[in-house]
Amino acid sequence: MNLALWIAAGLLAAVALLGGITKTFVPREKLAAAHGGGWTGDVSAGFVKTLGVLELLAALGLILPAVLGIAPVLVPVTAVCWVLLMIGAMITHGRRGEYSLSALNLVYLAIAAFIAWGRFGPESFVG
């Protein structure tokens, strides 16, 4: 179970890192033209960059606290925050009729929920 939680955290951290880098450093106009990025044309560039920074922090928060042994409770807390972020993403994509993207967000939400459940529960870092 511990290995599965580490793998899930690593995969979700990679997704968060990629999304965070993209939203933080790619211009909003270019994002808006890309598949699945149309929503960025409806919001400010600052909002997109803020989401990008939050995703970068999530990538760090899913891995570093446990690896460094400093406040490892931040791993499941980060996973819960990711669940909330994915709910917002699903609502946004659903309103735009982008149901395949909502389904992908649901997969990410399920992975984050698994991490939160596992790290708050049976495989907690608190011993």
From TrEMBL:
Topology of the protein relative to the lipid bilayer: Multi-pass membrane protein
Source species: Nonomuraea ferruginea
Localization: Membrane
Major place of residence: membrane
Transmembrane helix is among the record's keywords: yes
Name of the protein: DoxX family protein
Annotated transmembrane regions: 56-87, 99-120
Hydrolase recorded as keyword: no
Keyword terms of this UniProt record: Membrane, Transmembrane, Transmembrane helix
Pfam families (alphabetical): DoxX_2
Record InterPro entries: DoxX
